[in-house]
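Board notes (copied after class):
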Amino acid sequence: MEVILLTDVDKIGLRGDVVNVARGYARNFLLPRRLAEEATPAKVSELHKREQQRARHEAQTFEQAREIAERLGQTDLRFDVRAGPTGALFGSVTPTDIVDELWKQQKVRVDRRKVGIDNIKRIGRHTVPIDLFTDVAVEVRVVVVPEGGELPPEEELEAMEAAAHAEEEAAAAAAAAQQAEVQEFLADDEPEAETAESDASEPAAEPVAAEPESNQ
């Protein structure tokens, strides 16, 4: 079943992509959660029309790309997002979010697949590399701020990130220890099971006939 993604979906595609997925996955997951809509001919045509309009604002020559790079190099993007106490986001800032904000601020179209980062999952200051044209790239400054607040000082950000890494490492160590215990338990169980199978496979000893008593 073909659907149009309304947001970036891991391992499926980016927002605006027309993708073919299993009908059950679309009906039971993507459509009810409004992550996608059915790709009707009218909606696909409308999508292509919007892309063509935006494509007019994309760098077509080396000179245009240099001019755009100069503008974007002076651009600061800010995203206010929900975040936890250690600075981890409830969600992420995606390449699609970045190119949408560039369009909103500068009316410049950038190919989302030319944004050289994965999803941003922590608050902080980030430098995002973008390829605009052959031999023309730019780094855009992105600030991800906790919703309703401001960005903490750099030292506090580093401490929060260190705390988050420590939590992740502790969780990984606990999971590894639990897995080791399970493996050890299974290993201890195997000899007993083999012994039981071995005993069951051996023929039972035949009873020894008693010798008749002699009458003296």
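Comment from the instructor: The CA atoms of residues 27 and 163 lie 40 Å apart. The helical segments are 23-30, 41-55, 62-73, 95-106, 154-201.
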